[in-house]
Amino acid sequence: MIKQVRTIDKNSLQRALAAIAGIGVNVTLSFIVKVFDLPLYLDTAGTVFASMTSGLFPGIMTAVMSNLLISFLKINPDAMYYNLIGVFIAMCSAWFVHKKKHENKWNILVLVLVIGTVGGVFGNILQWMLLGGPQLKVVEETAMAITGTSTPGTLKTTRVGFFLASMIVNIIVNLIDKGGSVLLAALAFYLIPSERRTRIWNSGWRQKPLSYEETKAINAGKKSKSQSIKNRITLMLTIASVTLTAVMGIISMNHHYDDRKKEITRNALYAAEFVKDQADIQKLGSFMINGEEIPGYTDDLNMLLKLRRTVPGVDRLSVILSNDEGFRYVFDTGTDENPANEHGTIVEDIVETLPLLREMNQAGEKNIEKVETKNGWKPELLSDGDQEGKEGHACNAAISDDIIRWKLKVYYPLNNEKNEIYGYIVADASMGYTGTYLKEFSLKTLLVFSGFFILVLGFGLWASGYYLIYPIGTMASLIDVFMHDSEDQSVLDSNVRKLRSIDISTNDELETLYKAICEMASGTAEQMRSIRHFADSTVQMQNGLIVTMADLVENRDSDTGAHIQKTAEYVRIILDALERKGYYLEKLTPKFKSDAIMSAPLHDVGKINISDTVLNKPGKLTDEEYEIMKTHTIHGRLIMEKAISTVHGENYLKEARNMAAYHHERWDGKGYPEHLHGNVIPLSARIMAVADVFDALTSPRVYKPAFPLEKALEIIEEGSGTQFDPKCVDAFMDSLTEVKLVLKKYQEI
């Protein structure tokens, strides 16, 4: 037992090492690609190897963790967004071995074709969604050469053509890339001995490993039950994983959104402060009136333009001065949508924030939070004091944080010698349209968390499958067989051995339950063995009683030598022939046949009540004597019914009663004692009618010699459809070889 545990631990360790080695191979090859600037990826060889060696879940874990490390180590920062492709490769590779496709090495080419094509298509789609174009430079250049363009193009038709061209090139690159990865992984896979590969692959089982057909049967059984354990666990894990992914995604999005707003706010504040430090503040009045005519104006304007283009999030920079007419522009960079305003132009777009700005100036720094929102803008007090070496300077800002677009206006005050505000450096910033931002961030979050979602779901299904679903499914199927195949003791013992052979070792309550079930099954088998022993003894005793009763009757009738033995043989022959020919199959159960054969000797038990004068009369019976003889059927029925009520064996003696009472009924309804006809006559009695008459014809009596076999058969055939059931006659005539053997056997005796 200790040796077995060590073997399992060793295989499980090698299974884990395969996944760790796969991660190492993926990261190492990706690093080599980056160092040598190769036009490949080579980040899936380890995934293929781990999936082929250890199964689906280790393969998924290898793919997800590899992409995470490659991104974290800055080898390829975007690798984490391609988890779904890695998961797909793991699924294909694990399926390849699970279906035993690896036994034909040429199937490797099919695996390369599938992985390369799908990887190329979906990789190209993801690259365009994330990067706006191909990731690899060689793909971009080749696609441009195919489309005949010098740039990817901005027109819709040009971009569509470039997208399709890049997809084709991406597929070719992926076929080369994934082909090399798969071949490298396959080489390592085939170097491992087949027996060792099998042990590593099966190391996850907590019981005797099941074949593909056995697992398929268990899963098929679950599909017929909408509330199976597998369905419930899958639903539970899916809901938990989706909920966790959604919550983490929303939290990450909110944090990132807030951090992005803070970053843009700082950028806008720093840009305004930079303008104050670098611009020639003393000439602002002259700049506003004369503009380019004053030396230094153009340099300061170019500085603002450069800041707007280089500082992330800043859409516009301007300097405005106050006069009796309001505010006028000194500098203005304009925006991507709106041109710049000339110097001296009245500032008109400040109207929407001017009421808020005035209230903020009147409230001062201490009461800024009391200022109410105006025109969709809310007040904010900013400070540049967090910059190193700066004492800090407070400035007002207006923020529009609506659902469509987040916008910010920073008003950096310009003070004169009297500390009066005579103008502002205004920095307009925004995060772009919220919908566009959320779409991009949601896509990245979804792609990142999708891998972890599948990893969590895969682990849950793997663990529940090996520790719960398959052990319970195996036990359930074997217990079902155990319960329904209990007629044969050898089959019962075999099922107990099969139940013990699955060897469930989950080290939890399920293993305890399994051991208890094994003990119960073993105890049940032993009890059934004892019951069968007593049942066999009872049957032997019943058979002995039947034969004894039949012998009592036969010994009183001096004219019926071996009658009960021969008729019992004929009954068996007819029963087998009926079954062979397909007649009355719904009736011919093993129990019915057994009961009919065992009860056959009692068909004349009623003769025990017939007087010896009539029973053993040497000549032909008179009409009155014949009527007395006919009553043996009634006496036989009463005797058997009394026996049934006494021993509670109606199931066993039912056919004995039917034979004793109705074996002289005729198919055409002219028999006795009740004139039954056709199928109303019990089948056992119809069979006995043929056997009884045939034996009477072929046996000598005091009042007649035995008929020749041909004559007896002729009489039986003439009675088909009138005296006898045609099917019983057909079965009897179809078994003449066996009938003749019985005749020969008892003639020699």
Structure description:
- The chain is of the alpha+beta class and 749 residues long.
- It has three domains: 203 residues, Arp2/3 complex 21 kDa subunit ARPC3 (Orthogonal Bundle); 188 residues, Beta-Lactamase, CATH 3.30.450; 192 residues, Hypothetical protein af1432, CATH 1.10.3210.
- Helix content is 64%, strand content 7%.
- It is built from 26 helices and six strands.
- The protein has a six-stranded antiparallel sheet with strand order 2-1-6-5-4-3, sandwiched between helices.
- A hairpin with a 5-residue loop joins strand 5 and strand 6.
- Helix 18 crosses helix 22.
Secondary structure elements and pairings:
Elements: H1 2-36, H2 45-54, H3 56-72, H4 83-98, H5 107-131, H6 137-147, H7 156-191, H8 194-201, H9 212-223, H10 229-278, H11 284-290, H12 297-310, E1 314-323, E2 326-332, H13 354-363, E3 378-383, E4 394-401, E5 405-415, E6 421-433, H14 434-484, H15 489-501, H16 509-556, H17 563-581, H18 590-599, H19 612-615, H20 623-630, H21 632-647, H22 650-662, H23 683-698, H24 709-718, H25 726-733, H26 736-748
Antiparallel strand pairs: 1-2, 1-6, 3-4, 4-5, 5-6
Helix pairs in contact: 1-2, 1-3, 1-8, 2-3, 2-4, 2-7, 3-4, 3-14, 4-5, 5-7, 6-7, 10-14, 14-15, 15-16, 17-18, 17-23, 17-25, 17-26, 18-22, 21-22, 22-23, 23-24
Q: Which characteristics define this entry?
A:
749 residues, Arp2/3 complex 21 kDa subunit ARPC3, Beta-Lactamase, Hypothetical protein af1432, 3 domains, 26 helices, 6 strands, disordered N terminus
